[in-house]
Design brief:
It contains 16 helices and eleven strands. The termini are far apart. By secondary structure, it is of the alpha/beta class. It is globular.
Amino acid sequence: MEALQDVLRLPAERLFKEELEALKAADTGKVPAGWQLSPRSVLTFITGGEAGGRIITPKYIGNKRLVEMAIATLVTDRALLLIGEPGTAKSWLSENLTAAIYGNSGLVVQGTAGTTEEQVRYSWNYAMLLANGPTPEALVQSPIMRAMEAGGIARFEEISRCASEVQDALISILSEKTISVAELGKEMNARKGFSIIATANTRDRGVNEMSAALKRRFNIIVLPAPPDLETEVEIVRKRVGEIAAQYELGAAAPADEALIKVVTIFRELRSGMSLDRKEKIKSPGGAISTAEAISLLTGSMALAASFGDGELRDADLAAGLQGAVVKDDDKDRLVWKEYLDNVMKKRGEEWRGLYTACKELNS
């Protein structure tokens, strides 16, 4: 069995195994059919707290009521759809909800333009099919069918990236809680506990718009971007610390000053307005999300550790900012140049080092 330290990314149920065990041991609430924790314990796992003397770290920092609504949805037989801008922790919340409720977050359909209906329902082992015809042994179950059989939760990531006919394959599954296998003359009936958590990116609206019939099968929860600078800084600080520890980057954690500067830049570029509301700002074409800020800072820490003295400096941040903002080379480079000259340059000595480092890269 592979050593845990050799795994690049652990699923949530393994990463937080000890926390889940502590919650199970201390759980006194009613556990719904197919669940491993009561709804209140699931909430504690997601938003943080204490169980049996063990600290439970928050997995999602945001509106607690939204998490309560998501959990309450999954107690019923209604599926859950999490919608939001890029970087609003839709997939992270989906994974951790599934880990807490079912203990296996790996039953995933990844929505893309190439996702087929077979990946939603079932397919066949064609060698066995040709040799023996349609048999139960030749049936290849989709993650959704496996979740139905076990009474678990399947995840459908980026559902709006799929073609309409693929999306609509879910309608009968969510309505009837069955998948008909016509070739075998049988139906797969969902066990208690089965549900689906889907995610959709608001930037994908108009790509493959979900039908009204499919939307009615979901309880839709919109996850907002962090409401203020302080909340976003806290989210970024927490995740950067976790990722840096996981990869053993060997660099000092970013100072609060660096965190505030990066988050300030991202919030202003994202909103098209300076934080003091005095200056309009052009936004780049790519996603300027909290997740991007986290990636920027961890990448800058790796740069500092590998090619510097381990201290995160303005030059390291500037390199990360350049890559995060400038995606569409010509348009984004102009947006970034205007931001540097019209906003960052005017912020005085405190921002001078970062401005100079960014300007050198963008010259």
